[in-house]
């Protein structure tokens, strides 16, 4: 086979070689282009799958969302430093349990020095109602604001947000009252309203004179739930009693936070100033009265018998007090007896007052025209304030008398009060039969521990054997009126003798009853140290509570203020026997009864 010859073989080779090189370059280009197209298609497919997945996730989240947004679930935007993308992170709410000292709260709201009384005046209970549903929200709002201002959490750095949400999981109330507590009393109604607001109200029956175990039950439950996983993050105590300090300290030691809600007039100074027992500043209810109190509607403000207006009661009692001409006031027992003697329809007025207002004392306190002063146990002195006429005129303008009231006032008169002063004001005069000699005298409150009696009293012969002349001479010696029959003179002298007998004041009786109760539980004897500890865990007498404006103190504190020491009180009392007394050392206390 012959070879083809070319006149320019180099050129041919060059051209041939160029053509081969060009062909190879086109093939590589096509291959690279195909690879690139393939990768682009793969990336597009991946993007499509990612889009489908995102759409699927979005639709699933939409289906799972509640109809209403969860107020306790807050989403925070967090920026990823590596990708620069924003993510939404849900923050679980802090769980709060509120523990309420119910007895303390009742007195703090209804006593004369309560913040509500100071702002809205007496009788606020008939113009406003306490919104118990708002109370947990008010407390949580304050705690949340304090958390935000503290700035410990990174969530609080965003000033546009209010910080981590707070959820109240339970409100627990601890209190007691006697079985005969009227159902229309403010105390009974308050705890019924709490139950209606879904509070857990732990009600105990008061046996005897002193409330028992309420503080202990609250403290035990607070510590119990502190040990239950996820029960609460914050325990809020609604009280002003420093007896809860140990429970608050132990709760913090369990890793829980502790808050305190109280009122300025009834919060113990130790609780307010000690920062090691709580994690928040005190939430004072005084600052939130506008949110906690709701004005009553006119049809809600009236309670009880529609035939008996408030004006009628005010007029009857004020007339009775003024007719006595006793500047210091009238004994509450006399007012009660008088009200019981008057009837409107088929019921006496005293029963009506108890049914509508929970008792005579409660009505007088909220009346705005009477001054009520404590005297003996279950008794008090009542006088008329200077603004009484003005208040009654305003009350009269708003009163529409019923037919029963109109008939009552047709026969109503105060003339009989003047004619029978001795009978109507029996407990208001210093002694029976002495009403005419000292019309403006005041029965002195029993504030001294012992009234020293005349040693001659025991030597007086039987008065019935004395002649009228001898009885009159005895009356002169005692400064008593000498007019009257023999029976009147005997009665007058015996009443004077009775008034001079040694009498214990209510505080002594209260403290003795406490100690005797403790000794009985201990088998009749106990060490002075145990007695002191028991008094320290119990509250002071009701009289002391009234005098202090509702601020409660321990019974041991009251004892020391009045008698100086427990040892001195035990020695002076005839209810106890003390053995082993050596200086200020511990001794043993026995019951002499």
UniProtKB/TrEMBL annotation:
Positions of the SAP domain: 463-497
Region span, Disordered: 57-84, 428-452
Single GO MF annotation: RNA nuclease activity
Record-linked InterPro entries: LabA, NYN, SAP_dom, SAP_dom_sf
Biased composition (Polar residues): 64-84
Name under which the protein is recorded: SAP domain-containing protein
């Amino acid at each position: 086979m012959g070879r083809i010859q070319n006149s320019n073989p180099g050129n041919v080779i060059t051209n041939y070689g160029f053509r081969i090189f060009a062909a190879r370059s086109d093939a590589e280009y096509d291959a690279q282009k195909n690879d690139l197209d393939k990768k682009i298609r793969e990336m597009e497919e991946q993007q499509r799958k990612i889009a489908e997945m995102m759409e699927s996730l979005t639709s699933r989240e939409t289906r799972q969302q509640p109809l209403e947004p969860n107020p306790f679930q807050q989403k925070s935007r967090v920026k990823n430093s590596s990708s620069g993308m924003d993510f939404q992170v849900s923050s679980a709410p802090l769980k709060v349990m509120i523990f309420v000292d119910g007895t303390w709260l009742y007195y703090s709201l209804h006593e004369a020095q309560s913040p509500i009384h100071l702002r809205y005046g007496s009788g606020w209970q008939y113009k406003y109602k306490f919104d118990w549903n708002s109370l947990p929200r008010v407390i949580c709002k304050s705690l949340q604001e304090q958390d935000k201002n503290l700035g410990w959490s990174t969530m609080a750095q965003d000033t546009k947000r209010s910080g981590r949400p707070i959820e109240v999981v339970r409100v627990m109330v601890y209190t007691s009252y006697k079985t005969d507590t009227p159902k229309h009393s403010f105390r009974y109604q308050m705890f019924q309203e709490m139950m209606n607001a879904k509070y857990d109200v732990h009600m105990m029956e008061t046996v005897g004179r002193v409330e028992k175990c309420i503080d202990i039950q609250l403290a035990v439950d607070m510590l119990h739930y502190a040990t239950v996983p996820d029960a609460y993050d914050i325990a809020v105590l609604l009280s002003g009693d420093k007896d809860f300090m140990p429970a608050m300290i132990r709760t913090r030691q369990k890793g829980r936070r502790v808050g305190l809600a109280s009122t300025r007039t009834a919060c113990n100074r130790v609780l307010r100033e000690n920062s090691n027992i709580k994690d928040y500043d005190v939430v004072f209810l005084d600052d939130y009265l506008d949110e906690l109190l709701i004005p009553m509607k006119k049809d809600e403000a009236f309670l009880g018998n529609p035939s008996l207006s408030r004006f009628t009661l005010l007029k009857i009692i004020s007339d009775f007090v003024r007719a006595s001409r006793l500047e210091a006031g009238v004994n509450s027992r006399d007012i009660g007896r008088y009200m019981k003697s008057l009837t409107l329809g088929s019921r006496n007025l005293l029963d009506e007052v108890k049914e509508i207002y929970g008792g005579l004392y409660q009505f007088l306190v909220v009346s705005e025209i009477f001054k009520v002063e404590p005297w003996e146990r279950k008794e008090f002195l009542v006088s008329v304030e200077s603004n009484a006429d003005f208040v009654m005129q305003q009350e009269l303008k708003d009163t529409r008398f019923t037919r029963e009231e109109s008939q009552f006032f047709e026969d109503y008169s105060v003339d009989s009060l003047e004619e029978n002063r001795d009978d109507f004001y029996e407990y208001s005069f210093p002694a029976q039969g002495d009403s005419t000699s000292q019309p403006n005298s005041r029965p002195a409150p029993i504030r001294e521990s012992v009234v020293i009696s005349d040693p001659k009293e025991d030597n007086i012969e039987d008065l019935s054997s004395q002649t009228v002349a001898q009885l009159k001479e005895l009356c002169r010696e005692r400064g008593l009126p000498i007019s009257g029959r023999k029976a009147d003179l005997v009665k007058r002298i015996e009443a004077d003798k009775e008034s001079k007998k040694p009498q214990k004041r209510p505080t002594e009786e209260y403290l003795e009853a406490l100690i005797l109760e403790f000794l009985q539980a201990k088998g009749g004897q106990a060490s002075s140290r145990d007695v002191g500890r028991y008094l320290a865990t119990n509250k002071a007498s009701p009289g002391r509570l009234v005098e202090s404006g509702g601020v409660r103190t321990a019974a041991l504190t009251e004892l020391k203020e009045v008698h100086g020491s427990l040892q001195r009180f035990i020695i002076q009392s005839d209810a106890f026997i003390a053995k082993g007394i050596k200086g200020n050392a511990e001794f043993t206390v026995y019951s002499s009864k």
